[in-house]
């Protein structure tokens, strides 16, 4: 078995893929109406699938709400600059920030992702 990609559902696959393309600088591989795959220079893949019944997760989780089932961790060297860059690309800074060396952001579909400073 070989894991080939992580897939995020969204109301519009192309719109969400375009956000992550701007954020990460990855190259599109597949670009269909309802399915898009991005590839990193190292070969990692992140795919996006249109889900017409998509319900964004709530951060932080609340009983009875759509809970987060996965999130992306993105290492950065300058947390403030990376946060500003993500927001300029279309992310929103989450109101709740649980750690000093991590910034939780929400992508345009509402998926949380974490920008973080790796421990040295």
From TrEMBL:
SUPFAM superfamilies reported for this sequence: Glyoxalase/Bleomycin resistance protein/Dihydroxybiphenyl dioxygenase (SSF54593)
UniProt-recorded name of the protein: VOC family protein
Record-annotated VOC domain positions: 2-120
Entry superkingdom: Bacteria
Pfam families named among the record's database cross-references: Glyoxalase_6 (PF18029)
């Amino acid at each position: 078995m070989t894991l080939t990609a992580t897939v995020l559902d969204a109301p519009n696959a192309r719109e969400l893929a375009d956000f992550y393309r701007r954020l990460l600088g990855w190259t599109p591989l597949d670009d269909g109406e309802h399915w898009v795959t991005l590839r990193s220079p190292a070969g990692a893949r992140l795919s996006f699938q249109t889900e017409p019944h998509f319900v964004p997760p709530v951060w932080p989780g609340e009983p009875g709400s759509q809970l987060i089932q996965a999130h992306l961790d993105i290492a950065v060297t300058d947390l403030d600059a990376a946060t500003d860059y993500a927001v300029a690309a279309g992310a929103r800074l989450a109101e709740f920030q649980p750690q000093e060396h991590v910034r939780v952001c929400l992508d345009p579909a509402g998926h949380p992702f974490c920008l973080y400073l790796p421990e040295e």
